[in-house]
């Protein structure tokens, strides 16, 4: 009897604890990705990236054992100053002429914080404590421009002017053997997708062959999340067989990972933001990782080899998405790239919830009200299941005096007590498990909504009303967690107090425990939980009154 009374709270708590434990496990014991030398990778012999390759790329053979392009030391990387400035409607970037790398990229519409509205968030940067850059180049045995080469540009500043939909930034390079190359970045208005084009002109007397590569280098960023809020930062491979495969920094440190994939993409992701290299989706591309000194890691892709005949020219292309995890833009950039919005293993439930949340936001224009309305919709969908649970609890409450009487009559005779209780359940049509299953069914939905509210960049720095100016941060005055705790206390009042003193103390402690746990949760999550509690209280109160009004 008493277990039935506290079961809804225990199951809700179980759902929350499962989420937190899963996060902690993912953080402390991340899943190990098979390397090219382990089971699960279907590549031919010699396909793994070798760890002792020289610093400079040198090979352009058709095999997949091409060396990983490697940046010089950290000190050399951060002292380069020759750059080109690029500004579009969405980003401000700096391209180094030493290597032609994207070394800084600021997202103009995403401030660092609400307290720094004029400081744009830097996704790519050269700071030693958060090193993250994007590199690209050509691999060839007979010489080619790579990320160690010196380029020249027509000017130092490029800006997407009003009325322009496209901005091209061209860098030029040539060597003494008659090979000329241009590297062009193509930026588009309203898009975080950038095209990187290499045009090779072979003015020599012999055929030239080479391959294009794109790669990210980054250090392990400082963990800015709390103990209870963990989001994944690291690498992701995508293939037809495994559309979303994580390769974290521990995987990269333990052994280089390499494989050949037709199409696919590779990305470095973090909370709210992602950077991805996207090659030709019909070609067989080689993907790789490599651990470097200074706790830096390489994640990249090499395209197939192509031959440029004497007197001819060819263009090589890769695309890179560098920006916020906006699902509509990610879907347009590459198949499955929207999966970088990491909703976990319940993504198939989370995606429709995100769609519903976005759909409602399109009408109300406020993410806080969208969360409230989504909560109402979800509560409506589970109305009958919840009603069955509350009816079961209401009947248990109504017949509690008779249950206490049976317990006093039979004392310690558990067999006779259970027999009498089952007879009472049968006679009064009480299902002792009726309050359990409906709540268990709703736990996956709650977990999915949790991830939607935690992972959606649209909620970053999104205000609600009054003091809640950022739904992705905790309530600065802890009003919502306190209201949530009060709502849990009210729910307790709708159920009879457990006769066992220990269980009564547990019931009394639960609201305070949950309130404490929710103090540093994002305000959007606490708002959902509070509204859900209020709706549950209303539904349970109505059903309880109806059951108690029935004769019997």
What's the layout of helices and strands?
Elements: H1 2-28, H2 74-78, E1 83-87, E2 91-96, E3 102-113, E4 116-124, E5 132-139, E6 152-153, E7 157-159, E8 166-174, E9 179-188, E10 193-202, E11 208-219, E12 234-238, E13 245-247, H3 249-254, E14 258-262, E15 265-270, E16 273-278, E17 284-292, E18 296-302, E19 306-308, E20 313-324, H4 327-333, H5 347-364, H6 367-381, H7 383-398, H8 400-410, H9 414-428, H10 437-455, H11 479-493, H12 501-518, H13 523-549
The computed structural class is alpha+beta
What percent strand? 25-35%
| Record field, number of beta strands | 20
- Order of adjacent strands in the largest pleated sheet: 6-8-9-10-20-16-15-12-13
CATH topology of the largest domain: Beta-galactosidase, Chain A, domain 5
Cα distance, first to last residue?
18 Å
> What would the average pLDDT be, to the nearest integer?
79
Biggest sheet: strands, sense, closure? 9 strands, antiparallel
Count of separate DSSP helical elements = 13
CATH architecture identity of the largest domain = Distorted Sandwich
Output the radius of gyration: 29 Å
Kindly give the count of domains. Answer: 2
What is the CATH class designation of the largest domain? Mainly Beta
The low-confidence runs, each spanning 5 or more residues with pLDDT under 50, are: 1-7, 24-67, 70-81
Q: Level of helix content?
A: 25-40%
Shape annotation: elongated
